[in-house]
Protein: Polyisoprenoid diphosphate/phosphate phosphohydrolase PLPP6
Organism: Balaenoptera musculus
Amino acid sequence: MPSPRRNAEGRPLAACAPSSSGSPAHGGGGGGRFEFQSLLSSRAPGADPTCARLRASESPVHRRGSFPLAGAGSSPALPPPLPEEDRMDLNPSFLGIALRSLLAIDLWLSKKLGVCAGESSSWGSVRPLMKLLEISGHGIPWLLGTLYCLSRSDSCAGREVLMNLLFSLLLDLLLVALIKGLVRRRRPAHNQMDMFFALSVDKYSFPSGHATRAALVSRFILNHLVLAIPLRVLVVLWSFILGLSRVMLGRHNVTDVAFGFFLGYVQYSIVDYCWLSPHNAPVLFVLWNQQ
């Protein structure tokens, strides 16, 4: 009977290697436990760093990048704050909100009332009549008419009234041109620059010179001319319709006309306070009488 193989130390090979069948007779029980423990140790954390890193990189959390892994470095630096001028003003003042709302309502209402702004508008057939009414409130006809009446007047009281009317008209032209040059509000977009006579400042809209003149002249006439009640009502209607026609023609916005009425009312108060007479302005009346 052949002798079993021996290793270098003279021991049988069967005593060193475990049996593949795993039976206790051949020492398979100890070998099986050894193989099971080695398998567990290979799957334990820290056993194979390469496999652990691979499993971490394949995890859904790591792929999405939604949450940083535990033990990662410090969080990325926050972006620098925006400059003060680039930040959004989340708390605007009540006055600013009110002014913006008033401006929006003004533009919307002015566009709605501009029914005669063009020939193709809804009331385009009334446009020639509105333009004739525009001429009745223009500054040049009033200045020329006042100068003509002043040259034809032969009474001291009449010349005094006409002299103050001329002064009020000149004051109106000066103040309106000054405010228009300072504010520089453009006329409505639907306006057509086909006015009777326009100066350089007439390209601006605020305030309405026709509205200031209508309020000034109507108050002047009502206070210094003796008129019947129907004529007084007609003067008031003329000033109101003239101001409304400025919006209907698309020349001005509603706030331009409203401020024009207020400015014309104040202008008459100034003229009445600085009333020119032969007592406080004798040189002016003497020079006029010499002419």
User: Anything to note?
Assistant: Residues 1-10, 12-30, 56-72, 84-88 have pLDDT under 50 and may be disordered. The first helix runs from residue 13 to 16. The chain is about 60% helix and 0% strand. The radius of gyration is 49 Å.
